[in-house]
Amino acid sequence: xxxxxxxxxxxxxxxxxxxxxxxxxxxxxNRRYVSAGAEANTGTYAPYTTQIRDGRSIADHFxxxxxxxxxxxxxxxxxxxxxxxxxxxxxxxxxxxxIKEMTGADLVFPQGWMVRTPGELAKQKxxxxxxxxxxxQPQAGEAHCDFAxxxxxxxxxxxxxxxxxxxxxxxxxxxxxxxxxxxDGPQDWxxxxxxxxxxxxxxxxxxxxxxxxxxxSMEEMKAPIPGEENMLAAHIYQFNxxxxxxxxxNMNRDEFLYFKFYDSDNGVxxxxxxxxFFDNHAQNPNVRMSIEMRTMAYFY
Length: 300
Hints:
Layout lengths: L14 E9 L7 E5 L2 E4 L3 E10 L14 E5 L10 H20 L3 E10 L19 E2 L6 E2 L3 H15 L8 E10 L9 E4 L10 E7 L6 H4 L11 E4 L8 E3 L7 E9 L10 E3 L13 E10 L1
Parallel strand pairs: 2-11, 4-13, 6-7
Antiparallel strand pairs: 1-4, 2-3, 5-14, 6-16, 8-12, 9-14, 9-16, 10-13, 10-15, 11-12
């Protein structure tokens, strides 16, 4: 989409300077390696001083089609988000129902969840045959979006064929995150989302996802990977002073952020860069504990 200026009501929101971590220029090989409790990038990143606005006072203003994200209210029946059995039995159906109601999608399928925290719980031991879901990982601390557009198109088609074999063709899909903080506010590393209208087309750079049992050396991480062009890949971003970052202060377990990884409708905001950031304005912050559910919504 073409860059859109700040809405008038948005200029009334509290604003302060923070630091957002972006990819530095001149990184020919970009990959993100993940294992139990650890993640590492081959690219070099650096913090940039950036304005961020607190959308709490105008929360009802944000639109999925315009901004690419919304703040919502939902009381989950999950008592303990660290209990995988309980989460698996309850949460996917809750999330799917909420997204269907919110978007009008015909079908919604959860694709797995991850708990994220900068605390000690994220420091897990090596796991043989590690699968990048249903575990606890550190916060993702750089500007990114989980799917590059061409990757999202392929994943959406393959996933639909898997869960709806022989189903009628869909006209639109939205790949997105249903994100909830279940620690008390304020949080030390809240989630920031970028107004998709402030991101110009072509900004994203592919970052290949590589799931491993143990993080290898940098030399090994940069070695050639046959078939890399067909692997899952995110979008990462370089600093752009026009990016408009938002967060919602003091989020609680009865709230959620729903934000787009990719929307196949090119007439609306399609992607939302996002990242954790350290909130140095928070008074006596708590360690952030959050759960993200990746989802795919289809429209006939």
